[in-house]
From TrEMBL:
Residues 13-52 are annotated as: Disordered. Residues 65-421 form the GH64 domain. Gene3D superfamilies: Beta-1,3-glucanase, C-terminal domain, Thaumatin. Residues 20-33 have a biased composition (Low complexity). This is GH64 domain-containing protein. It comes from the Eukaryota. It holds the Pfam family Glyco_hydro_64.
C-alpha cells in the first residue's frame, strides 16, 4: 500500500500542468531582477483546491483556523540572527504581507509612489541566543518565504503595486549582497500547509523543516549540517579539478574572504552567460542520436498517461499533440524553462517538460527509454556529464533532500521524493531551524 504522503502526492499531481507562481518581487531601479522559475507544486500560488471524492475528504480535513504557528529556532553560534516572513495574504485579497518584529502582527504595506520605498515598520524578528525558539503566527499566505539572516538585518523595500523588493544575490549593489541569508518556501491555505527548502537559486544557511499535524505525526526535512556549505564548496572545487568546468566559480565569498553562499548553475549563467555554454553538448547529441532510432516514453503522471516519441532522424523528440522538443542547450537544461522547456498553452506539453528536463539534469536518458519510471535515485547523476551542483547539494543534506533545480520534485510512481517538502491537510505547527547545529536525519 502506498504511504499517506505518496497518496497525497498523487492526489495533487504536483508536477503536472503547473503554472508559474504569482511574482511579488520587484527590483529597485530601472532594470528588474530576472526571477528564476520556481516549480514547487503545491507551493504554486495558482494551486487548485481539490474537489470531489477523496479530494473532498482531504479538503474537509484541512485546517480552517486561518492562522498557523511557526516555531523559529536559532541553531547557529550567533546571537545576531533574524527571521522574516513574507507572502500574499489569501484572506486579504492576496495583499502583500509581511510579519512585524513581534512575530504576530501582520503588516500590509500601502502602495508607494516611488520604487525602493522603505518599509514603515520593523519586520526583523530577533531569534535571540543560540538554542532559543521564537513562535510566530501567520495568516493564510500564498507564495510565502521564511527568510533568515545571520550577523545583520536584511533590507526589504516596496515598489509601486505594491511589490516587494526582496534581497537579491544577482545585483552587486543590493544592500544584502554581503549578508549571510537564505529562505524556505511555504504556502498555507484552507487545504493544506506546504513547505520546502529551496536551493534552486543558491545555497547558503542550513535550514531544516518539521511539520507536526493534529494527530501528532511529524514530517521532517533535515537540511544541511553546520558545515554543509563548506562540504558543497569542497565538492564543487573537486569537480572543477576533475573536468575543468566552472563548478568552483559558483562559490561566492564575502568581502572579507569568508564562504558566503554557492550559486546554482542557472544563477551562474544569468550572471555570466558564457559559463557552461558547451557543457551539455556531447550528452545532448548522444541522447538525440539514441532516440533518432528508438522511442522515448514519458509517463506524464497525469490524464495524458504515457506518451511516446516518434523515432526519426531529424534530431527532434516528436510527441505529436504533446509537441516537439529540439535539442536544449546548457541554459535551457539548468533553468528548465527556456528553449524547448518553455511552457505555454498546451497542457500535454506542460506535463512532458518537467519530466524531460528533470531527466536531463539527472542524466538518466541514456540509462532507460522510460522516464521518470525507468530509473531511481541511485542512478541519478551517475553520468560524468550531469548537474553536479544538484548531485553535490543532495549528498551534503543529511537526508539527501531539497530542491536543487526547478523540477527536482519529479518522482517515479511510488518512488522516494527528492525535493525535501513537508505538507499536511491538518497542520498543528511547523518548526524551522536555522544554522545546522543539532541537525539530524529523521
Amino acid at each position: 500500500m502506498a504511504s499517506y504522503i505518496d497518496r497525497i502526492r498523487k492526489l495533487f499531481r504536483r508536477s503536472a500542468n503547473r503554472k508559474q507562481p504569482t511574482q511579488t518581487t520587484a527590483q529597485t531601479g530601472a532594470s528588474a531582477q530576472k526571477p528564476l522559475n520556481q516549480h514547487d507544486g503545491a507551493n504554486d500560488s495558482n494551486q487548485q483546491t481539490p474537489k470531489g471524492g477523496i479530494e473532498a475528504k482531504v479538503a474537509k480535513a484541512a485546517t480552517a483556523s486561518g492562522s498557523l504557528q511557526i516555531r523559529l529556532q536559532n541553531q547557529t553560534n550567533s546571537s545576531t540572527v533574524y527571521a522574516y516572513i513574507t507572502g500574499q495574504a489569501i484572506q486579504n485579497n492576496n495583499a502583500l504581507f509581511l510579519l512585524q518584529a513581534d512575530a504576530k502582527t501582520p503588516y500590509y504595506p500601502p502602495n508607494p509612489s516611488q520604487t525602493g520605498t522603505k518599509i514603515g515598520v520593523n519586520i526583523s524578528i530577533s531569534l535571540g541566543a543560540p538554542g532559543d525558539t521564537i513562535t510566530a503566527t501567520i495568516p493564510q499566505i500564498a507564495g510565502g518565504r521564511i527568510w533568515f539572516s545571520v550577523g545583520a538585518q536584511l533590507t526589504f523595500a516596496v515598489n509601486p503595486g505594491p511589490g516587494l523588493v526582496e534581497p537579491s544575490v544577482f545585483t552587486p549593489a543590493d544592500p544584502n549582497i554581503n549578508i549571510n541569508f537564505g529562505f524556505a518556501e511555504v504556502t498555507f491555505n484552507s487545504s493544506q500547509v506546504f513547505a520546502n527548502i529551496s536551493y534552486v537559486d543558491f545555497v547558503a544557511l542550513p535550514i531544516s523543516l518539521s511539520l507536526t499535524d493534529t494527530s501528532n505525526n511529524t514530517q521532517h526535512t533535515s537540511g544541511l549540517p553546520a558545515n554543509g556549505l563548506q562540504t558543497i564548496a569542497n565538492g564543487l572545487t573537486a569537480q572543477t579539478q576533475k573536468d575543468g568546468r566552472r563548478w568552483s566559480s559558483l562559490i561566492v565569498n564575502s568581502s572579507n574572504g569568508q564562504l558566503l553562499r554557492i550559486l546554482s548553475p542557472n544563477s551562474g549563467i544569468l550572471l555570466n552567460p558564457s559559463w557552461f555554454q558547451t557543457y551539455w553538448t556531447d550528452y545532448v547529441n548522444a541522447v538525440y542520436a539514441q532516440y533518432n532510432n528508438q522511442p522515448l516514453t514519458i509517463d506524464t503522471q497525469a490524464s495524458f498517461g504515457n506518451v511516446t516519441s516518434t523515432a526519426n532522424s531529424s534530431n527532434v523528440l516528436n510527441y505529436g499533440a504533446g509537441g516537439s522538443f529540439a535539442k536544449p542547450n546548457a541554459a535551457d537544461i539548468f533553468s528548465c524553462s527556456t528553449g524547448p522547456f518553455a511552457t505555454g498553452s498546451n497542457g500535454e506539453t506542460n506535463t512532458i517538460i518537467p519530466r524531460l528536463s528533470a531527466a536531463f539534469n539527472r542524466s538518466t536518458l541514456l540509462i532507460s527509454n522510460n522516464t521518470p519510471n525507468g530509473t531511481n535515485p541511485s542512478q541519478y547523476y551517475t553520468n560524468p556529464t550531469t548537474n553536479h551542483y544538484a548531485r553535490i547539494v543532495h549528498a551534503a543534506n543529511l537526508d539527501g533532500k531539497g530542491y536543487a533545480f526547478p523540477y527536482d520534485d519529479v518522482t517515479p510512481d511510488g518512488g522516494v521524493p527528492q525535493e525535501g517538502a513537508v505538507f499536511s491537510s491538518s497542520p498543528a505547527y511547523m518548526t524551522l531551524a536555522v544554522g545546522g547545529n543539532n541537525a539530524y536525519a529523521a
